[in-house]
């Protein structure tokens, strides 16, 4: 073990003699982490969003439906009805909309969604018949998610009232001794039930009492936690790769400079030589992590309540990247190859593994592919610790995967290592 430590300390001295190393370890990660953190922190979202409406019914019921949609989300503005002198709806000189034009506007992202209400909508609702409202959106934008929620809330309210009036009328018609004077009387009764049911639904008779988890009040939902809670571990993991993958060309350079050959002449095994090299780059990687996580402490990120699990995640991830780097280096022949592969692996593994953005926002198949990267297993652990009140037991499966990966890479590096 002393021989491994000696090799590592000597390489550290050589590493820090090179000018500019501190810039790569401190300044660049600092800028990227803060920039990405503030970018991800975001705000409260847009104050107004455009939604095109084609109301072919133009009735009191269609008007009430649209009012319910806006009541569910006050950020929604309907076009062309809510257009203003500044042409918020971006309609230009032609202020009218038809279905073809609105669909094109959705495709071009000039509007975020289209709501089309068919003719006969009011009559269908009054008669208890099915009424279909068409909703179109562009899946490439994120806003229609909350627009659709508002539309569904309004449809649910109207549908509940319709069911109540239909069932109420049916019960009265089929109850002995109760009759309607005429069709107008029946319709008035049905309308009364509908109005009372709609009013009851509006009062939200069933509510959910929500409380935070054991994290400090507001910590999990603050913009700082949301933004920097992703960027601190994400950028930290990425820059650990950038730094440690610098070792890809170390063995190649040292063979050219005959440094390895001199080490071989000493009473050292291949495992000891590689162990010393890996230890040196592991220490540099942990220093990189420490710099980035200190930024998190300064801006106020809550790292959870299990410090042991957090530090263990940093250690095992850094070990895995270091062992992986040396395993790959045994397959390369030139420094040019090493530089290209280093950049490619860093960018690919960081993006696939969720260092830039959470894997929660990607499709399921991309989430599976992303877990081919060791970054994903580390980010899963950080997410559990920072956002889900996790502890060592909850992240242990992720750490086990990284530990197996580290062992396999180290064994491969020792097996493939050549003196020549």
List the SSEs and their pairings.
Elements: H1 2-17, H2 21-41, E1 49-55, H3 60-72, E2 76-79, H4 99-107, E3 113-117, H5 121-126, E4 134-137, H6 144-173, H7 183-202, H8 223-244, H9 250-256, H10 259-264, H11 270-299, H12 307-329, H13 335-352, H14 364-370, H15 374-387, H16 392-416
Parallel strand pairs: 1-2, 1-3
Antiparallel strand pairs: 3-4
Helix pairs in contact: 1-11, 2-8, 2-11, 3-6, 6-7, 8-11, 8-12, 8-13, 8-15, 11-12, 12-15, 12-16, 15-16
Highlighted features:
420 residues, mainly alpha, 2 domains, 16 helices, 64% helix
Alpha-beta classification = mainly alpha
**CA gyration radius, whole angstroms:** 31 Å
How far apart lie the N and C ends? 25 Å
* Number of continuous helical runs: 16
- How many E strands? 4
Uncertain runs are 204-221
- Mean pLDDT value: 77
Shape: elongated
In percent, how much strand structure appears in the residues? under 5%
| Largest sheet descriptor | 4 strands, mixed
Helix content: 55-70%
Instruction: Trace the largest sheet across and list its strands.
Output: 2-1-3-4
Number of domains in the coordinates? 2
Order of helices and strands: HHEHEHEHEHHHHHHHHHHH
């Amino acid at each position: 073990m002393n021989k491994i430590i000696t090799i590592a300390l000597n390489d550290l001295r050589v590493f820090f003699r090179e000018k500019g190393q501190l810039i790569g370890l401190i300044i660049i990660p600092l800028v990227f982490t803060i920039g990405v953190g503030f970018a991800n922190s975001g705000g409260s979202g847009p104050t107004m969003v455009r939604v095109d409406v084609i109301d072919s019914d133009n009735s009191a019921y269609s008007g009430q439906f649209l009012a319910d949609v806006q009541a569910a989300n006050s950020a929604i503005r309907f076009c062309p009805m809510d257009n203003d002198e500044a042409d918020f709806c971006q309609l230009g000189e032609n202020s009218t909309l038809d279905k073809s034009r609105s669909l094109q506007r959705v495709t071009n992202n000039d509007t975020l969604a289209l709501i089309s209400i068919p003719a006969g909508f009011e009559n269908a609702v009054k008669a208890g018949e099915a009424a279909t409202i068409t909703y179109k959106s562009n899946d490439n934008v994120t806003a229609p998610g909350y627009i659709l929620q508002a539309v569904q809330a309004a449809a649910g309210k109207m549908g509940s009232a319709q069911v109540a009036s239909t069932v109420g009328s049916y019960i009265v018609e089929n109850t002995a001794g109760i009759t309607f004077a005429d069709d107008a009387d029946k319709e008035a009764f049905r309308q009364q039930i509908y109005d009372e049911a709609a009013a009851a639904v509006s009062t939200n008779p069933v509510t959910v009492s929500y409380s935070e988890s054991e994290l400090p009040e507001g910590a999990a939902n603050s913009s700082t936690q949301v933004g920097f809670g992703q960027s601190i571990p994400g950028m930290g993991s990425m820059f650990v790769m950038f730094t440690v993958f610098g070792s890809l060309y170390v063995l190649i350079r040292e063979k050219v400079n005959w440094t390895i050959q001199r080490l071989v002449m000493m009473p050292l095994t291949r495992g000891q030589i590689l162990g010393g090299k890996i230890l040196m780059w592991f220490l540099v990687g942990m220093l990189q992590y420490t710099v980035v996580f200190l930024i998190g402490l300064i801006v106020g990120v809550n790292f959870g309540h299990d410090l042991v699990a957090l530090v263990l995640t940093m250690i095992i991830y850094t070990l895995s990247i270091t062992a992986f780097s040396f395993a790959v280096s045994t397959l390369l022949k030139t420094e040019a190859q090493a530089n290209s592969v280093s950049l490619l692996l860093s960018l690919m593994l960081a993006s696939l593994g969720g260092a830039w953005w959470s894997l929660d926002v990607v499709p399921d198949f991309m989430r599976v592919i992303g877990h081919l990267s060791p970054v994903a297993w580390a980010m899963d652990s950080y997410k559990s610790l920072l956002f889900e009140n996790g502890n060592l037991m909850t992240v242990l499966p992720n750490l086990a995967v990284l530990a197996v990966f580290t062992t396999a890479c180290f064994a491969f590096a020792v097996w493939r290592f050549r003196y020549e």
